[in-house]
Amino acid sequence: MSKKDSDKDLFQKKILEKQQEAKIVRKIVLTIFIVLLIVFSGIIGGGYLYINSALKPVDPSNNKQITVSIPIGSSVSSIAKILKENGLIKDEKIFRYYVKFKNESGFQAGKYTFTKAMSFQDIINGLKDGKVTNQAIFQLTIPEGRQITEIAKIISNKTSYPEDEILKKLTDKKFIQSLQKEYPNILTDEIYGNNIKYALEGYLFPATYFYYEEKPTLEQIIDPMVEKTSKIVSKYYGELEPNNLTVHQFLTMASLIEEEATAKADREKISSVFYNRLDEEMPLQTDPTVLYALGKHKDRVLYKDLEVDSPYNTYRNKGLPPGPIANAGEMSLTAALQPEQTDFLYFLATKEGEVIFTKTLQEHNKEKAKHITNQDKAEKGS
């Protein structure tokens, strides 16, 4: 073969190689393009589906009324946040964009009653009208420190339900289990402890509740109280583990503080006494647990009362009682997790409502002799 023919073959070979390379490149580019197109389409499609879902009611079949407060001067962003926190919308940003797209404005401050079945436009119309969806027909106020039997009486006084029927509902296991499914983070199986007097004791938050029906069911009356507890307690979740407390123990400690506190009491100091006693493996010896064990409300606890045979009697049993003895307010909840750092092991409430804290039994007895003249009065916290 001549040199000329050899060069020609080499040239043709290079041309074929370049053509092959170009073909491979085109295939790669086409493949990348198709992949990008699929990914892009997926993003667009997924985004469309998400936005479309966010624009719809949270739960079209749920007409349970939820009351929200919109403060004066609230921006669209803060309103969206309130609605999201109360489970009335799925996405804050989508709500804000919707308001902007529709050029909606003129929202007014106030209390509003919405449901999860309402659309964006229904909620917006309500906010623009500046009035609640329905006026409350009646309200229930549960004071701090009340027990289940007292709460049953409060409900009975405001409704047509007799006390025994209310108490039966509050102790109905099937009903309690339905609440557990709704609020699993607070209603754990600890509420079914062998020695628990009432499973829901301590789980009906003290507050004022508004009702918009002439005769709501007992479920509709009680559920908001448990929901309120769930909402309030959720703020403390991050502090429970560092304090080695379960939700049940947390509510139990808070209830003791609530029942011992007076208007002048320093709840953080009372909390410190209880924790100091637990650390020293001393019984808590708090009178309200004796009264709870007796099932009575008395102005004073007698020495003979301290002998009541009950797991709730903290004079006879060390550690926390089996469960809460009342429904604690937020001040006591905070104190249960943030006790003051003290060396106090005793405290004594005077007739004037002042609480005196001491470090030793000798100091405590001295203060007791000074302030408590009736010797039948049991020692507070000793």
From TrEMBL:
Reaction catalysed by this enzyme: a peptidoglycan chain = a peptidoglycan chain with N-acetyl-1,6-anhydromuramyl-[peptide] at the reducing end + a peptidoglycan chain with N-acetylglucosamine at the non-reducing end
Transmembrane segments: 28-51
UniProt-listed Enzyme Commission number(s): 4.2.2.29
Record site feature (Important for catalytic activity), residues: 260
Keyword field contains ATP-binding: no
Record Pfam families: YceG
Membrane topology summary: Single-pass membrane protein
Cellular compartments annotated: Cell membrane
HAMAP family: MltG (MF_02065)
Family stated for the protein in its record: Belongs to the transglycosylase MltG family.
Entries under PANTHER family matching the protein: ENDOLYTIC MUREIN TRANSGLYCOSYLASE
Function in brief: Functions as a peptidoglycan terminase that cleaves nascent peptidoglycan strands endolytically to terminate their elongation.
Protein name per its UniProtKB record: Endolytic murein transglycosylase
Organism: Metabacillus fastidiosus
